[in-house]
Amino acid sequence: MPMTQLGARAVVLGGSMGGVLAARVLAESYAEVVVVERDRVLGVSTPRRGAPHTVHAHGLHARGHLILEELFPDLTEELRAAGVPTGDLGEMRWFFNGRRIQPAHTGLVSVTAPRPVLENHVRNRVAAITNVTLIEECDVLGLVATADHEQIVGVRVRRRTDPAEAEVIDADLVVDATGRGSRTPAWLDELGFQRPEEERVKVGLAYTTRHYRIRPEMFDGVQSINPVASPAHPRGAFFGQVAPDVCILSLTGLLGDYPPTDPDAFLEFVRSLPVADVYEAVRDAEALDEAVSFRFPASVRRRYDRLLRFPGRLLVVGDAFCSFNPVYGQGMSVAAIQAMTLRSHLRLGRPPEPHRFFADLSRVVDTPWDISAGGDLDFPGVEGRRNLKVRIGNAYMARLQYAATKDPEVTNGFMRVAGLMDPPQALMRPSMVRRVLRHAIRRPGPGPSWRDTTPAPAVE
Ligand SMILES: Cc1cc2nc3c(=O)[nH]c(=O)nc-3n(C[C@H](O)[C@H](O)[C@H](O)COP(=O)(O)OP(=O)(O)OC[C@H]3O[C@@H](n4cnc5c(N)ncnc54)[C@H](O)[C@@H]3O)c2cc1C
């Protein structure tokens, strides 16, 4: 039941993670919430055309997990019962700069569901809310505004089942959650408003992914094995269990070094990772599918918060607002935090005011953007200004990651920040700085690649 009713209908554009989380909180304050999604999604737990990135490894950070559990009580148990592995974020096998960090019990839950499975469970919960309607296979064509363009009063859509007819859905509030390809900047232009400035960090990233049948010896009791890209070892991987007998391997390559899809070349890329663990696990493993690739040219932050004029009754959330380099695993958790921000605006008892909402959303995005954009600037080939904050941050982070190879308490602090539980400043507390400097006064060099010490296998 709605709490304080703020309007008859809110319409959410896009029924992926950002959209359904927004719908969940809007349902508390609008008599009806309509989610418009161009794909068929209800009951779908496999990757789909409108969200091709969802075939690749998606970890849910601790903060995102806590918010989902708050919005959808017992979701974690439901996921576990469905065979989704969960574990402690700090107890996975993490490698930074070619070195394994010490495992630590953090108490932070990591969920490694296949992304479409997680999305399906969350969407089912939202679709079951009595005042939420999900319209599938329906394209959003544009916004409908008042004659003076000052207020948005609906959206134009076309159902794929009836492609000849466009129709208008009236709305008291429209929330754009259509992802990176959001057309709100173009729609603003058409309505006589400025487009938001875009901050971009070009990373030239690609993920290439295959699934394998799990063999008991592959993971040796850990949930996932993740050699994360670093400037000295820019090739990375996320290798994790996603179902009782299935694991996912997503390879990551930066600045145009795209992991190939050809099976032999894929395996060769795995062999080129700085640590042997993933190669040893998959070289004889049974692949369950062909490799697929996804390119992610740049992280993009749209500065809606800086626009002086913006139409009323329109908001933007999720990747449409800010899309981060995915290797930091932040997008779904940030979408969840944004949903909580939206809820706090709704609880003020009046329809959300775009300027205030975007100002708050921007504050939400600041830290994950600094983590992602700042971390990317540690790679010499990534273009961008390295101000003092970025240089000091990266210099300290390299020391901290090295210290984490010696001290589980450092792992714990690092995982709390990476999991968006604590702000980065927590890593600057005197007790933590002492632990870090005890092991790394100077910036440590990279760990050696395993191939530097191991002869290449004989080629037949
Ligand atoms: C390779 C990769 C790996 C990632 N890994 C992680 C990870 O490990 N952890 C994490 O938290 N995040 C990760 N992310 C980020 C995460 O996927 C996104 O942040 C998250 O999906 C939120 O996105 P969204 O719902 O805002 O947009 P999207 O997921 O892009 O969804 C947009 C939706 O809008 C629909 N749509 C678009 N246009 C229209 C239209 N005109 N009409 C109707 N419907 C429309 C689409 O069909 C789609 O369903 C990753 C991203 C990528 C690319």
From TrEMBL:
Q: Output the SUPFAM superfamilies linked to this UniProt entry.
A: FAD/NAD(P)-binding domain (SSF51905)
Instruction: Give start-end ranges for the coiled-coil region(s).
Output: none
Note the Pfam families from the entry: FAD_oxidored (PF12831)
Extract one GO molecular function annotation from the record: monooxygenase activity
Lineage, top-rank taxon, reads: Bacteria
Question: What Gene3D superfamilies does this protein map onto?
Answer: FAD/NAD(P)-binding domain
Key word tRNA processing present: no
Q: Which UniProt keywords apply?
A: Monooxygenase, Oxidoreductase
PANTHER family assigned to the protein according to its UniProt record, in alphabetical order = THIAMINE THIAZOLE SYNTHASE
Q: What is this protein called?
A: FAD-binding monooxygenase
